[in-house]
Amino acid sequence: MKGKLKDTYRYTLAISPLDCMGCGVCIGVCPTDSLSMVGAEGELAEQDVFDYCVEKVADKPEVQDNSVKGSQFKQPLLEFSGACAGCAETSYARLVTQLFGDRMFISNATGCSSIWGGPAATSPYTVNKEGRGPAWANSLFEDNAEHGYGMLQGHTAVRQMVIEQTEQLLAAGAPEGAAAAAQAWLDARDDSAASKDASAAYVVELSRSLRKAKERRRYLLPRFSRTRITLRRNPSGSLAATAGPTISVTADSTMCSRPART
Questions:
Q1: Deepest of 3, 142, 188, 233, by most Cβ within 10 A of its Cβ?
Q2: Would you say 244 and 257 are in contact if contact means Cβ atoms under 8 Å apart?
């Protein structure tokens, strides 16, 4: 590996024999004539190398950026497309997923890219180790601009709902850890890089607070009698609240083990 990290890392280019379409385009464009076509049977052992690089090799943020070279150290989130041999569309689509794939929405107009992009029962778009990847949907022919705008509007509405719920959480006096994480996410939500760490920390704190709340509930409930409050409609049409320690409700009546108050 060349560059400032040449003494830190070793570089290898792993090729999946199962992904090769046999088109020979890579041989024609290779500037050093380093590639040649051989029978697939003799190369199948290389699949283990490819699988190792996909599953075991960690990200290297210090060499990853949005330049032509640095982007290629990022994980592609498009694989095994099944496109026609020599198709160039997949090369561009793969590059875009390396740049934006973990937060990417695709409104795909009907055409070649919708065929290899969403064949029945499979999808070439994949996810990273955090389970994040492109969200893909297909629209009819020329209306993908309107379709994509609808996806944006839906995402914006859901995000605004989360913002409002987070503000309500802070106003209600959330636990210290959850409150700090919530405020950090609100502050960083429009920063594509910083919001990733902030949202991950926010989820962790919310989960921790929820577990604590459930533990308190399990501790407190046995110490109070279980009373069910039921609304039922009187013959006059008005609603009455019925309370009791052992109330059971059927479709048209309320039964109690002892007289209940209304």
A1: 188
A2: yes
The overall pTM is greater than 0.85: no
Residue 220 parent element (H or E): helix 194-220
Whether residue 144 contacts residue 137, with contact meaning beta carbons closer than 8 Å, is answered with: no
User: What is the helix (H) or strand (E) element at residue 138, kind and residue range?
Assistant: strand 135-138
Q: Are 114 and 81 in contact (CB under 8 A)?
A: no
Tens digit of pLDDT at every position of the chain (262 positions): 566 777 788 878 888 888 787 888 888 888 998 888 888 888 899 999 999 988 888 888 888 888 888 888 888 999 888 888 778 898 899 999 999 988 899 999 888 888 898 877 788 999 988 888 999 988 877 788 999 999 999 999 999 999 999 999 999 888 888 999 999 999 999 998 899 899 999 999 999 988 888 877 776 666 555 555 555 555 665 545 444 444 333 334 333 344 444 4
Separation between Cα atoms, residue 58 and residue 250, nearest integer Å: 58
